[in-house]
Amino acid sequence: MLVIKAGGSEGISLEAVCADVAELVHKGQQLVLVHGGSNETNIIAEKLGHPPRFVTSVSGYQSRRTDRETLAIFEMVYCGKINKSIVEQLQALGVNAVGLSGLDGRLLEGPRKRSLRIVEGGRRMVLHDDYTGKVKKVNVNLLRLLLDNGYLPVITPPAISNEHEAINVDGDRAAARIASALNAELLIILSNVPGLLRSFPDETTLIHRIDKAGIEEFVSHAQGRMRIKMLAATEALQDGVKRVILSDGRVRHPVRAALAGKGTLIE
Amino acid sequence: MLVIKAGGSEGISLEAVCADVAELVHKGQQLVLVHGGSNETNIIAEKLGHPPRFVTSVSGYQSRRTDRETLAIFEMVYCGKINKSIVEQLQALGVNAVGLSGLDGRLLEGPRKRSLRIVEGGRRMVLHDDYTGKVKKVNVNLLRLLLDNGYLPVITPPAISNEHEAINVDGDRAAARIASALNAELLIILSNVPGLLRSFPDETTLIHRIDKAGIEEFVSHAQGRMRIKMLAATEALQDGVKRVILSDGRVRHPVRAALAGKGTLIE
Protein backbone atom coordinates (compact mmCIF):
# COMPACT_ATOMS: atom_id res chain seq x y z
CA MET A 1 0.00 0.00 0.00
CA LEU A 2 1.26 3.43 -1.00
CA VAL A 3 -0.12 6.79 0.17
CA ILE A 4 0.72 9.88 -1.89
CA LYS A 5 0.09 13.40 -0.60
CA ALA A 6 0.16 16.12 -3.25
CA GLY A 7 0.38 19.59 -1.76
CA GLY A 8 -1.65 22.57 -2.89
CA SER A 9 1.13 25.14 -3.18
CA GLU A 10 1.89 27.04 -6.35
CA GLY A 11 3.90 25.12 -8.92
CA ILE A 12 2.81 21.61 -7.97
CA SER A 13 1.44 19.89 -11.05
CA LEU A 14 -1.60 17.76 -10.18
CA GLU A 15 -1.68 16.72 -13.84
CA ALA A 16 1.78 15.19 -13.49
CA VAL A 17 0.83 13.54 -10.19
CA CYS A 18 -2.28 12.02 -11.82
CA ALA A 19 -0.23 10.67 -14.75
CA ASP A 20 2.21 8.96 -12.36
CA VAL A 21 -0.61 7.65 -10.18
CA ALA A 22 -2.36 6.13 -13.20
CA GLU A 23 0.90 4.48 -14.30
CA LEU A 24 1.30 2.86 -10.85
CA VAL A 25 -2.34 1.77 -10.65
CA HIS A 26 -2.13 0.13 -14.08
CA LYS A 27 0.91 -1.81 -12.81
CA GLY A 28 -1.24 -3.15 -9.97
CA GLN A 29 -0.09 -0.85 -7.15
CA GLN A 30 -2.78 -0.23 -4.51
CA LEU A 31 -2.70 3.39 -3.45
CA VAL A 32 -4.57 6.29 -1.94
CA LEU A 33 -4.12 9.89 -3.04
CA VAL A 34 -4.45 12.79 -0.59
CA HIS A 35 -4.34 16.39 -1.81
CA GLY A 36 -4.24 19.98 -0.63
CA GLY A 37 -5.43 23.23 -2.18
CA SER A 38 -3.98 26.14 -0.23
CA ASN A 39 -2.84 28.33 -3.12
CA GLU A 40 -6.12 28.04 -5.02
CA THR A 41 -8.05 28.71 -1.80
CA ASN A 42 -6.09 31.92 -1.34
CA ILE A 43 -6.98 33.05 -4.87
CA ILE A 44 -10.70 32.24 -4.59
CA ALA A 45 -10.98 33.69 -1.07
CA GLU A 46 -9.45 36.91 -2.34
CA LYS A 47 -11.90 37.05 -5.28
CA LEU A 48 -14.85 36.39 -2.98
CA GLY A 49 -13.89 39.32 -0.78
CA HIS A 50 -12.82 37.23 2.22
CA PRO A 51 -9.02 37.36 1.85
CA PRO A 52 -6.92 34.63 3.50
CA ARG A 53 -5.35 35.24 6.88
CA PHE A 54 -2.71 33.15 8.56
CA VAL A 55 -2.05 32.87 12.25
CA THR A 56 0.95 31.65 14.21
CA SER A 57 0.30 29.48 17.24
CA VAL A 58 2.26 30.06 20.45
CA SER A 59 4.22 26.89 19.66
CA GLY A 60 5.31 28.47 16.37
CA TYR A 61 3.17 26.67 13.79
CA GLN A 62 1.48 28.69 11.08
CA SER A 63 -2.06 27.85 10.01
CA ARG A 64 -4.96 29.27 8.01
CA ARG A 65 -7.38 31.36 10.05
CA THR A 66 -10.53 29.30 9.55
CA ASP A 67 -13.73 31.04 10.51
CA ARG A 68 -17.01 29.61 9.28
CA GLU A 69 -16.95 31.64 6.06
CA THR A 70 -13.41 30.50 5.29
CA LEU A 71 -14.52 26.92 5.86
CA ALA A 72 -17.18 27.24 3.15
CA ILE A 73 -14.60 28.66 0.72
CA PHE A 74 -12.14 25.94 1.78
CA GLU A 75 -14.74 23.28 0.98
CA MET A 76 -15.55 24.87 -2.37
CA VAL A 77 -11.93 24.75 -3.46
CA TYR A 78 -10.64 21.54 -1.83
CA CYS A 79 -13.77 19.34 -2.13
CA GLY A 80 -15.24 20.95 -5.23
CA LYS A 81 -12.77 22.43 -7.65
CA ILE A 82 -9.59 20.47 -6.91
CA ASN A 83 -10.97 17.10 -5.77
CA LYS A 84 -13.32 16.81 -8.74
CA SER A 85 -10.64 18.00 -11.17
CA ILE A 86 -8.34 15.20 -9.94
CA VAL A 87 -11.15 12.63 -10.15
CA GLU A 88 -11.95 13.76 -13.70
CA GLN A 89 -8.28 13.54 -14.74
CA LEU A 90 -7.84 10.08 -13.21
CA GLN A 91 -11.04 8.83 -14.83
CA ALA A 92 -9.71 10.01 -18.19
CA LEU A 93 -6.56 7.97 -17.47
CA GLY A 94 -8.61 4.85 -16.81
CA VAL A 95 -8.45 4.97 -13.01
CA ASN A 96 -11.78 4.58 -11.20
CA ALA A 97 -11.25 7.39 -8.70
CA VAL A 98 -13.73 8.32 -5.95
CA GLY A 99 -13.24 11.69 -4.26
CA LEU A 100 -14.01 12.01 -0.57
CA SER A 101 -13.56 14.63 2.12
CA GLY A 102 -12.94 13.76 5.73
CA LEU A 103 -16.62 14.51 6.42
CA ASP A 104 -17.84 11.74 4.12
CA GLY A 105 -18.48 8.62 6.16
CA ARG A 106 -16.52 10.32 8.97
CA LEU A 107 -13.42 9.38 7.01
CA LEU A 108 -11.13 11.68 9.02
CA GLU A 109 -12.24 12.40 12.56
CA GLY A 110 -10.72 14.17 15.51
CA PRO A 111 -11.06 16.88 18.14
CA ARG A 112 -11.63 20.51 17.22
CA LYS A 113 -9.35 22.94 19.02
CA ARG A 114 -11.79 24.69 21.35
CA SER A 115 -9.45 27.63 21.60
CA LEU A 116 -6.48 28.57 19.49
CA ARG A 117 -3.66 30.44 21.24
CA ILE A 118 -1.90 32.67 18.76
CA VAL A 119 0.72 35.39 18.65
CA GLU A 120 -0.11 38.44 16.55
CA GLY A 121 2.08 41.52 16.35
CA GLY A 122 3.94 40.31 19.45
CA ARG A 123 0.70 39.99 21.44
CA ARG A 124 -0.88 36.76 22.63
CA MET A 125 -4.52 36.21 21.71
CA VAL A 126 -7.04 33.42 22.04
CA LEU A 127 -9.44 32.58 19.19
CA HIS A 128 -12.68 30.77 19.97
CA ASP A 129 -14.35 30.78 16.55
CA ASP A 130 -11.69 28.91 14.64
CA TYR A 131 -12.57 25.60 12.99
CA THR A 132 -9.30 23.72 13.09
CA GLY A 133 -8.37 20.43 14.64
CA LYS A 134 -6.42 17.24 14.35
CA VAL A 135 -7.18 13.84 12.79
CA LYS A 136 -7.15 11.08 15.39
CA LYS A 137 -9.27 8.41 13.70
CA VAL A 138 -9.47 7.18 10.10
CA ASN A 139 -12.50 5.23 8.82
CA VAL A 140 -10.31 2.49 7.41
CA ASN A 141 -13.35 0.28 6.70
CA LEU A 142 -14.65 2.77 4.15
CA LEU A 143 -11.23 3.01 2.50
CA ARG A 144 -10.87 -0.80 2.34
CA LEU A 145 -14.43 -1.12 1.00
CA LEU A 146 -13.55 1.18 -1.90
CA LEU A 147 -10.07 -0.24 -2.50
CA ASP A 148 -11.29 -3.86 -2.42
CA ASN A 149 -13.89 -2.99 -5.05
CA GLY A 150 -11.44 -1.40 -7.45
CA TYR A 151 -11.87 2.26 -6.57
CA LEU A 152 -9.02 4.68 -5.89
CA PRO A 153 -9.84 7.03 -3.00
CA VAL A 154 -8.87 10.68 -3.56
CA ILE A 155 -9.01 12.31 -0.14
CA THR A 156 -9.09 15.92 0.96
CA PRO A 157 -9.60 17.91 4.17
CA PRO A 158 -11.71 19.09 5.95
CA ALA A 159 -12.11 16.43 8.63
CA ILE A 160 -15.07 16.07 10.97
CA SER A 161 -14.85 16.96 14.65
CA ASN A 162 -16.12 14.72 17.43
CA GLU A 163 -18.99 17.21 17.66
CA HIS A 164 -19.73 16.78 13.91
CA GLU A 165 -18.35 20.11 12.70
CA ALA A 166 -16.20 20.44 9.60
CA ILE A 167 -12.65 21.26 10.70
CA ASN A 168 -9.59 22.35 8.79
CA VAL A 169 -6.79 19.88 9.44
CA ASP A 170 -3.26 19.70 8.17
CA GLY A 171 -3.19 17.64 4.98
CA ASP A 172 0.28 16.16 5.55
CA ARG A 173 -0.56 14.93 9.02
CA ALA A 174 -3.91 13.60 7.75
CA ALA A 175 -2.02 11.70 5.05
CA ALA A 176 0.31 10.30 7.75
CA ARG A 177 -2.73 9.05 9.71
CA ILE A 178 -4.21 7.49 6.58
CA ALA A 179 -0.90 5.79 5.76
CA SER A 180 -0.61 4.28 9.23
CA ALA A 181 -4.28 3.23 9.33
CA LEU A 182 -3.72 1.35 6.05
CA ASN A 183 -0.36 -0.09 7.18
CA ALA A 184 1.22 1.54 4.15
CA GLU A 185 4.75 0.61 3.21
CA LEU A 186 5.46 4.09 2.00
CA LEU A 187 4.15 7.64 2.30
CA ILE A 188 5.26 10.15 -0.33
CA ILE A 189 4.73 13.83 0.49
CA LEU A 190 5.08 16.06 -2.56
CA SER A 191 5.51 19.80 -2.08
CA ASN A 192 7.11 22.84 -3.70
CA VAL A 193 10.61 22.08 -2.37
CA PRO A 194 12.95 19.19 -3.28
CA GLY A 195 12.85 17.77 0.26
CA LEU A 196 14.38 18.72 3.61
CA LEU A 197 17.09 21.33 3.09
CA ARG A 198 19.96 21.81 5.54
CA SER A 199 19.95 25.54 4.76
CA PHE A 200 16.58 26.62 3.45
CA PRO A 201 16.07 27.82 0.67
CA ASP A 202 19.38 26.57 -0.77
CA GLU A 203 18.28 23.53 -2.77
CA THR A 204 21.84 22.20 -3.05
CA THR A 205 21.73 21.46 0.69
CA LEU A 206 19.13 18.70 0.28
CA ILE A 207 19.38 15.99 2.92
CA HIS A 208 19.06 12.68 1.05
CA ARG A 209 18.48 10.25 3.88
CA ILE A 210 17.47 10.44 7.52
CA ASP A 211 17.45 7.53 9.90
CA LYS A 212 14.24 7.19 11.89
CA ALA A 213 16.28 7.13 15.11
CA GLY A 214 17.87 10.51 14.38
CA ILE A 215 14.78 12.30 13.10
CA GLU A 216 14.40 14.59 16.14
CA GLU A 217 17.66 16.32 15.32
CA PHE A 218 16.47 17.09 11.81
CA VAL A 219 13.14 18.51 12.85
CA SER A 220 15.07 21.51 14.10
CA HIS A 221 16.47 22.10 10.60
CA ALA A 222 12.99 22.46 9.20
CA GLN A 223 11.54 25.88 8.50
CA GLY A 224 7.91 26.94 8.12
CA ARG A 225 5.71 24.38 6.38
CA MET A 226 8.55 21.85 6.38
CA ARG A 227 8.35 21.61 10.18
CA ILE A 228 4.81 20.23 9.89
CA LYS A 229 5.89 17.84 7.14
CA MET A 230 8.67 16.52 9.40
CA LEU A 231 6.14 16.17 12.21
CA ALA A 232 3.83 14.24 9.85
CA ALA A 233 6.72 11.99 8.81
CA THR A 234 7.62 11.36 12.47
CA GLU A 235 4.01 10.44 13.29
CA ALA A 236 3.73 8.10 10.27
CA LEU A 237 6.95 6.26 11.18
CA GLN A 238 5.94 5.98 14.85
CA ASP A 239 2.64 4.42 13.77
CA GLY A 240 4.18 1.72 11.61
CA VAL A 241 4.70 3.23 8.15
CA LYS A 242 8.07 1.86 6.92
CA ARG A 243 9.35 4.78 4.84
CA VAL A 244 8.46 8.39 4.18
CA ILE A 245 9.77 10.37 1.20
CA LEU A 246 9.56 14.17 1.08
CA SER A 247 9.97 15.11 -2.54
CA ASP A 248 9.44 17.70 -5.27
CA GLY A 249 5.93 18.05 -6.70
CA ARG A 250 6.99 20.55 -9.36
CA VAL A 251 8.86 18.15 -11.66
CA ARG A 252 7.62 16.29 -14.73
CA HIS A 253 7.25 12.89 -13.02
CA PRO A 254 7.00 13.71 -9.32
CA VAL A 255 6.02 10.25 -8.04
CA ARG A 256 8.36 8.39 -10.38
CA ALA A 257 11.21 10.68 -9.30
CA ALA A 258 10.47 10.13 -5.60
CA LEU A 259 10.43 6.34 -6.12
CA ALA A 260 13.73 6.60 -8.04
CA GLY A 261 15.50 8.19 -5.09
CA LYS A 262 14.91 11.94 -5.38
CA GLY A 263 13.98 13.89 -2.28
CA THR A 264 14.56 13.09 1.38
CA LEU A 265 14.06 9.48 2.42
CA ILE A 266 13.21 8.91 6.07
CA GLU A 267 13.27 5.29 7.23
CA MET B 1 -36.08 2.34 -1.51
CA LEU B 2 -36.82 6.05 -1.60
CA VAL B 3 -35.01 8.68 -3.68
CA ILE B 4 -35.36 12.32 -2.67
CA LYS B 5 -34.30 15.18 -4.92
CA ALA B 6 -33.94 18.55 -3.19
CA GLY B 7 -33.70 21.42 -5.64
CA GLY B 8 -31.24 24.28 -5.42
CA SER B 9 -33.63 27.19 -5.96
CA GLU B 10 -34.06 30.04 -3.52
CA GLY B 11 -36.24 29.24 -0.53
CA ILE B 12 -35.69 25.51 -0.38
CA SER B 13 -34.48 24.62 3.11
CA LEU B 14 -31.81 21.93 2.97
CA GLU B 15 -31.78 22.01 6.77
CA ALA B 16 -35.44 20.94 6.84
CA VAL B 17 -34.80 18.28 4.19
CA CYS B 18 -31.89 16.89 6.25
CA ALA B 19 -34.03 16.76 9.41
CA ASP B 20 -36.74 14.78 7.59
CA VAL B 21 -34.18 12.50 5.94
CA ALA B 22 -32.60 11.73 9.32
CA GLU B 23 -36.02 10.93 10.78
CA LEU B 24 -36.72 8.45 7.99
CA VAL B 25 -33.26 6.85 8.18
CA HIS B 26 -33.62 6.35 11.93
CA LYS B 27 -36.93 4.56 11.24
CA GLY B 28 -35.03 2.14 8.98
CA GLN B 29 -35.92 3.63 5.58
CA GLN B 30 -33.23 3.07 2.93
CA LEU B 31 -32.83 6.18 0.84
CA VAL B 32 -30.63 8.23 -1.43
CA LEU B 33 -30.55 12.02 -1.46
CA VAL B 34 -29.87 13.98 -4.66
CA HIS B 35 -29.46 17.75 -4.57
CA GLY B 36 -29.09 20.81 -6.75
CA GLY B 37 -27.42 24.17 -6.22
CA SER B 38 -28.49 26.55 -8.97
CA ASN B 39 -29.27 29.63 -6.89
CA GLU B 40 -26.02 29.49 -4.92
CA THR B 41 -24.09 28.88 -8.15
CA ASN B 42 -25.58 32.07 -9.60
CA ILE B 43 -24.47 34.04 -6.54
CA ILE B 44 -20.91 32.67 -6.48
CA ALA B 45 -20.51 32.95 -10.28
CA GLU B 46 -21.55 36.60 -10.05
CA LYS B 47 -19.06 37.25 -7.23
CA LEU B 48 -16.27 35.52 -9.15
CA GLY B 49 -16.86 37.79 -12.15
CA HIS B 50 -18.25 35.07 -14.41
CA PRO B 51 -22.01 35.81 -14.19
CA PRO B 52 -24.50 33.06 -15.01
CA ARG B 53 -26.04 32.84 -18.45
CA PHE B 54 -28.97 30.71 -19.49
CA VAL B 55 -29.74 29.45 -22.94
CA THR B 56 -32.94 28.11 -24.49
CA SER B 57 -32.66 25.08 -26.74
CA VAL B 58 -34.57 24.96 -30.01
CA SER B 59 -36.94 22.47 -28.34
CA GLY B 60 -37.73 25.08 -25.70
CA TYR B 61 -35.80 23.84 -22.66
CA GLN B 62 -33.78 26.34 -20.64
CA SER B 63 -30.37 25.36 -19.30
CA ARG B 64 -27.28 26.92 -17.76
CA ARG B 65 -24.63 27.94 -20.28
CA THR B 66 -21.78 25.71 -19.11
CA ASP B 67 -18.40 26.63 -20.48
CA ARG B 68 -15.30 25.19 -18.81
CA GLU B 69 -15.03 28.08 -16.33
CA THR B 70 -18.69 27.73 -15.35
CA LEU B 71 -18.09 24.02 -14.81
CA ALA B 72 -15.35 24.76 -12.26
CA ILE B 73 -17.67 27.17 -10.41
CA PHE B 74 -20.50 24.65 -10.66
CA GLU B 75 -18.27 21.99 -9.05
CA MET B 76 -17.19 24.38 -6.31
CA VAL B 77 -20.77 25.09 -5.30
CA TYR B 78 -22.51 21.76 -5.93
CA CYS B 79 -19.73 19.33 -4.93
CA GLY B 80 -17.97 21.58 -2.43
CA LYS B 81 -20.15 24.03 -0.60
CA ILE B 82 -23.59 22.40 -0.79
CA ASN B 83 -22.72 18.71 -0.86
CA LYS B 84 -20.37 18.99 2.12
CA SER B 85 -22.80 21.18 4.03
CA ILE B 86 -25.50 18.50 3.64
CA VAL B 87 -23.07 15.74 4.66
CA GLU B 88 -22.04 17.75 7.73
CA GLN B 89 -25.68 18.35 8.73
CA LEU B 90 -26.64 14.71 8.27
CA GLN B 91 -23.60 13.56 10.25
CA ALA B 92 -24.67 15.86 13.09
CA LEU B 93 -28.09 14.15 12.95
CA GLY B 94 -26.50 10.71 13.28
CA VAL B 95 -26.72 9.73 9.60
CA ASN B 96 -23.53 8.35 8.07
CA ALA B 97 -23.70 10.34 4.83
CA VAL B 98 -21.19 10.07 1.99
CA GLY B 99 -21.24 12.81 -0.63
CA LEU B 100 -20.51 11.91 -4.23
CA SER B 101 -20.67 13.64 -7.58
CA GLY B 102 -21.48 11.83 -10.80
CA LEU B 103 -17.75 11.83 -11.60
CA ASP B 104 -16.87 9.73 -8.55
CA GLY B 105 -16.71 6.09 -9.55
CA ARG B 106 -18.47 7.13 -12.80
CA LEU B 107 -21.64 7.24 -10.71
CA LEU B 108 -23.63 9.14 -13.36
CA GLU B 109 -22.48 8.61 -16.92
CA GLY B 110 -23.81 9.62 -20.31
CA PRO B 111 -23.16 11.36 -23.61
CA ARG B 112 -22.09 14.99 -23.81
CA LYS B 113 -24.04 17.06 -26.29
CA ARG B 114 -21.43 17.68 -28.97
CA SER B 115 -23.36 20.71 -30.14
CA LEU B 116 -26.14 22.62 -28.48
CA ARG B 117 -28.69 24.27 -30.78
CA ILE B 118 -30.07 27.34 -29.08
CA VAL B 119 -32.30 30.30 -29.82
CA GLU B 120 -30.99 33.69 -28.72
CA GLY B 121 -32.77 36.94 -29.49
CA GLY B 122 -34.84 35.13 -32.12
CA ARG B 123 -31.71 33.82 -33.87
CA ARG B 124 -30.63 30.19 -34.00
CA MET B 125 -27.06 29.45 -32.90
CA VAL B 126 -24.95 26.37 -32.32
CA LEU B 127 -22.64 26.10 -29.30
CA HIS B 128 -19.69 23.70 -29.45
CA ASP B 129 -17.96 24.49 -26.17
CA ASP B 130 -20.81 23.69 -23.82
CA TYR B 131 -20.38 20.92 -21.24
CA THR B 132 -23.86 19.55 -20.84
CA GLY B 133 -25.26 16.11 -21.37
CA LYS B 134 -27.62 13.44 -20.21
CA VAL B 135 -27.32 10.61 -17.68
CA LYS B 136 -27.77 7.23 -19.35
CA LYS B 137 -26.00 4.94 -16.88
CA VAL B 138 -25.90 4.82 -13.08
CA ASN B 139 -23.16 2.92 -11.23
CA VAL B 140 -25.66 1.06 -9.11
CA ASN B 141 -22.93 -1.24 -7.71
CA LEU B 142 -21.25 1.70 -5.99
CA LEU B 143 -24.59 2.88 -4.55
CA ARG B 144 -25.44 -0.61 -3.29
CA LEU B 145 -21.95 -1.02 -1.83
CA LEU B 146 -22.43 2.13 0.24
CA LEU B 147 -26.08 1.45 1.17
CA ASP B 148 -25.36 -2.16 2.19
CA ASN B 149 -22.61 -0.92 4.49
CA GLY B 150 -24.75 1.65 6.26
CA TYR B 151 -23.85 4.78 4.33
CA LEU B 152 -26.35 7.24 2.91
CA PRO B 153 -25.28 8.50 -0.54
CA VAL B 154 -25.73 12.24 -1.11
CA ILE B 155 -25.44 12.74 -4.85
CA THR B 156 -24.87 15.82 -6.97
CA PRO B 157 -24.18 16.67 -10.61
CA PRO B 158 -21.95 16.97 -12.61
CA ALA B 159 -21.99 13.62 -14.37
CA ILE B 160 -19.16 12.17 -16.44
CA SER B 161 -19.33 11.94 -20.21
CA ASN B 162 -18.45 8.82 -22.17
CA GLU B 163 -15.25 10.70 -23.07
CA HIS B 164 -14.51 11.31 -19.36
CA GLU B 165 -15.38 15.00 -19.21
CA ALA B 166 -17.42 16.53 -16.40
CA ILE B 167 -20.84 17.48 -17.79
CA ASN B 168 -23.68 19.51 -16.34
CA VAL B 169 -26.81 17.38 -16.28
CA ASP B 170 -30.31 18.07 -15.09
CA GLY B 171 -30.60 17.07 -11.43
CA ASP B 172 -34.25 15.98 -11.60
CA ARG B 173 -33.65 13.69 -14.53
CA ALA B 174 -30.49 12.35 -12.87
CA ALA B 175 -32.57 11.60 -9.76
CA ALA B 176 -35.12 9.80 -11.96
CA ARG B 177 -32.33 7.64 -13.41
CA ILE B 178 -31.02 6.87 -9.93
CA ALA B 179 -34.51 5.95 -8.71
CA SER B 180 -35.10 3.55 -11.58
CA ALA B 181 -31.59 2.03 -11.29
CA LEU B 182 -32.32 1.29 -7.61
CA ASN B 183 -35.88 0.05 -8.34
CA ALA B 184 -37.15 2.72 -5.95
CA GLU B 185 -40.78 2.61 -4.85
CA LEU B 186 -40.94 6.36 -4.74
CA LEU B 187 -39.16 9.44 -6.06
CA ILE B 188 -39.86 12.76 -4.32
CA ILE B 189 -38.85 15.91 -6.19
CA LEU B 190 -38.82 18.98 -3.94
CA SER B 191 -38.73 22.41 -5.53
CA ASN B 192 -39.87 25.99 -4.89
CA VAL B 193 -43.48 25.37 -6.02
CA PRO B 194 -46.16 23.22 -4.35
CA GLY B 195 -46.33 20.81 -7.31
CA LEU B 196 -47.79 20.93 -10.80
CA LEU B 197 -50.14 23.93 -11.15
CA ARG B 198 -52.95 24.06 -13.68
CA SER B 199 -52.43 27.81 -14.03
CA PHE B 200 -48.89 28.75 -13.03
CA PRO B 201 -48.17 30.64 -10.73
CA ASP B 202 -51.58 30.35 -9.04
CA GLU B 203 -50.87 27.89 -6.21
CA THR B 204 -54.59 27.22 -5.63
CA THR B 205 -54.65 25.40 -8.99
CA LEU B 206 -52.44 22.56 -7.73
CA ILE B 207 -53.12 19.24 -9.43
CA HIS B 208 -53.21 16.64 -6.67
CA ARG B 209 -53.03 13.43 -8.64
CA ILE B 210 -52.08 12.37 -12.12
CA ASP B 211 -52.52 8.93 -13.53
CA LYS B 212 -49.45 7.57 -15.28
CA ALA B 213 -51.55 6.82 -18.36
CA GLY B 214 -52.60 10.44 -18.71
CA ILE B 215 -49.29 12.10 -17.97
CA GLU B 216 -48.67 13.31 -21.55
CA GLU B 217 -51.67 15.61 -21.35
CA PHE B 218 -50.31 17.22 -18.19
CA VAL B 219 -46.82 17.80 -19.55
CA SER B 220 -48.39 20.54 -21.66
CA HIS B 221 -49.58 22.32 -18.49
CA ALA B 222 -46.04 22.60 -17.21
CA GLN B 223 -44.12 25.83 -17.53
CA GLY B 224 -40.37 26.47 -17.43
CA ARG B 225 -38.50 24.26 -14.96
CA MET B 226 -41.68 22.26 -14.26
CA ARG B 227 -41.59 20.89 -17.81
CA ILE B 228 -38.26 19.18 -17.06
CA LYS B 229 -39.60 17.86 -13.75
CA MET B 230 -42.58 16.34 -15.57
CA LEU B 231 -40.18 14.84 -18.10
CA ALA B 232 -38.11 13.40 -15.23
CA ALA B 233 -41.27 11.97 -13.63
CA THR B 234 -42.31 10.40 -16.93
CA GLU B 235 -38.90 8.80 -17.37
CA ALA B 236 -38.88 7.46 -13.80
CA LEU B 237 -42.35 5.88 -14.18
CA GLN B 238 -41.46 4.41 -17.59
CA ASP B 239 -38.38 2.79 -16.03
CA GLY B 240 -40.22 1.08 -13.19
CA VAL B 241 -40.47 3.61 -10.35
CA LYS B 242 -43.95 3.16 -8.84
CA ARG B 243 -44.75 6.71 -7.73
CA VAL B 244 -43.36 10.20 -8.17
CA ILE B 245 -44.33 13.13 -5.94
CA LEU B 246 -43.60 16.73 -6.95
CA SER B 247 -43.79 18.75 -3.77
CA ASP B 248 -42.85 21.93 -1.95
CA GLY B 249 -39.30 22.19 -0.59
CA ARG B 250 -39.93 25.49 1.18
CA VAL B 251 -42.06 24.17 4.05
CA ARG B 252 -41.02 23.16 7.55
CA HIS B 253 -41.18 19.39 6.95
CA PRO B 254 -40.89 19.03 3.18
CA VAL B 255 -40.43 15.25 3.01
CA ARG B 256 -42.96 14.49 5.74
CA ALA B 257 -45.51 16.73 3.98
CA ALA B 258 -44.92 15.02 0.62
CA LEU B 259 -45.40 11.60 2.24
CA ALA B 260 -48.57 12.87 3.93
CA GLY B 261 -50.16 13.72 0.60
CA LYS B 262 -49.07 17.26 -0.23
CA GLY B 263 -47.95 18.05 -3.75
CA THR B 264 -48.69 16.30 -7.01
CA LEU B 265 -48.71 12.51 -6.93
CA ILE B 266 -48.04 10.76 -10.21
CA GLU B 267 -48.62 7.03 -10.23
Plain-language structure description:
- The structure is a homodimer of 267-residue chains.
- Chain A contains eight helices and 16 strands.
- By secondary structure, chain A is an alpha/beta fold.
- Chain A has one domain (2-266): Acetylglutamate kinase-like (Carbamate kinase), CATH 3.40.1160.10.
- In chain A, the strands form three sheets. Chain A has an eight-stranded mixed β-sheet, sandwiched between helices. Chain A has a four-stranded antiparallel β-sheet with strand order 4-3-7-8, with no helix packed on it. In chain A, strands 9-6-11-12 form a four-stranded mixed β-sheet, with helices on one face.
- Chain A is globular, with a radius of gyration of 17 Å.
- Chains A and B meet through α3, β5 and α4 of A and α3, β5 and α4 of B.
CATH superfamily heading of chain A: Acetylglutamate kinase-like
CATH topology of chain A: Carbamate kinase
One letter per element, helices H and strands E, the order of chain A comes to: EHEHEEHEEEEEHEEEHEEHHEHE
Low-confidence stretches of chain A: none
Strand order of the largest sheet of chain A: 5-10-2-1-13-15-16-14
Overall number of strands of chain A: 16
Shape of chain A: globular
Radius of gyration of chain A: 17 Å
What helical percentage do the residues of chain A reach?
25-40%
Q: What is the CATH C level class of chain A, in words?
A: Alpha Beta
Structural class of chain A: alpha/beta
Query: Main interface pair?
Result: A-B, 39 and 39 residues
Counting DSSP H or I runs of 4 or more residues, the number of helices of chain A is 8
- Per CATH, the architecture of chain A is 3-Layer(aba) Sandwich
Intertermini distance of chain A: 16 Å
Oligomer: homodimer
Quote the average pLDDT of chain A.
95
